Every structure is written in C-alpha cells, then in structure tokens.
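Quick question, first post here. What does this chain look like in 3D?
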Amino acid sequence: MIRDVTLGRFLEGDGVLYKLDPRTKLMGLLLYIVSLFVFKTWLGFVLTIVFFLLLRILSKISFNYMVKGLKPVFFIILFATIFNVILGQSDWVKTLFTLWRMIGAVLASNILTLTTRPREISDALEKGLSFLSVIHFPVHELATIISLAFRFIPILTEEAGRVIDAQKSRGSRIGEGKISDKAKSVMPIIIPLFISAFRRSDELALAMDSRLYGSGKRSVWKKMEYSKLDFYGYLISVLILVLMVVDRCVL
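> Answer (accepted):
Ran it through. Tokens below.
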C-alpha cells in the first residue's frame, strides 16, 4: 500500500488543469482551502464538493487512483475525527463538515501535485512570494526546500517499499499479529529508511555544492506566462470563496 502513495507525484496527462499556470493552481488551492474552512451550511458543503468534482473532471485523473494513494492519510483523518467525537461535544453535522474540510484539503492538494511538476511548484512559489525579498526574506531558499520535500515523498515511499520487501524475504512478519507486534515490526523499517534518507540528503548536498548553488542569482529556464485559461481559473476560485463568505455571513 505504501507504494501507492500519490501525494507529491506528478502524473502525465492532458487535462485542462495541466495547461494552467502553476501560480494559478497554487492560488486556486489556497482560495479553495480557505473556502473549505469558511462555509457553515449544507449549501456551502455541497458547493465545495461540486467544485472539487469539477477539478477532478478538468484534471482527467481517475478518482480511484487519487484515493488509493491517500489511504494512510484518510486513516489518520478518520482517527482524529472519531477522537474528536468521543472527547468533544460536537454534533454529527459539525463533525461531518470538519471531516470533509480535512479530506477536501488533502484531495485538492493531491490534484495540484499530480498535475504540476515539483520544479513548477517551486518556481511558482518563488515568483508569487518575490515581494517578500524587499524585507530580505529567503524566498528562493524556501521554494527550494518545498520543492525538495515534494520530490522526496515518492522517493522515500519507494525506498520504504523496498525495505519492507527485503525484511519480508528475511522472514519478518510485518503488519501481522497483535497491535504490539505490528508496532515492533515497524522498527526494522524505520531505521534503514532514516539511514537511506540521510544518505540521499548528503548526496544531494554534494551535488548542489558542485553546481555552485547559492553562489549567485539563479536564472529561469522556462518563463511562466498567463493565458486566458488562467483568467477563468482565478475567476472561478474567487467566485467559490465569495459564495462561501456569503454562506457564512448571510445564510
């Protein structure tokens, strides 16, 4: 199951979302997540679901492919929701809304990473936050860190899958038995995974040093340009946020 993780992976496709500027997709994701936490009625709940379904259609990405890679994340969200119901005093409607807010944010973020290359996300972040350079904020370094984090997610999941196969070939019963046995079986996976992650990060640091990273201003190979589609993307993103604000303040 760990090999099926799709968060952080780029999937080749020809949907409309692939043609949007990465800055448009980042801003759209931000506005959608804000919209998820603004609505408070059933109308807003339904509209945010409809908007997500529209995103999925425009991306042409299989819903099953998207969901199967997020099963571990969904399990954590479901556990947190159940924990909140047991200890909190929220009614089932608020609990349902909270559950969808978390799931919707994860699904929308997954659509972004599936339709946008990590390099494009990094460039969009750097371009969008360039105004912070006036106060000497390390925008380029922040964008690089986020880009590397996205790149390492699929690499580490594949590495974890290889470690699990290696441990099983040695007779380890990973994921079997009681809860205490399952917890103990995680250690033979975590330690090699940490060692592999540190080794890869060290190799990455040497590669960046050999290319004189940070020695001067970096040039951009592919310049980002807005199109008419981006205008519609911004318009729809702002519209859904305005509708959620109306839903919260008026309805």
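Residues 179-210 form the longest helix (32 residues).
The radius of gyration is 21 Å.
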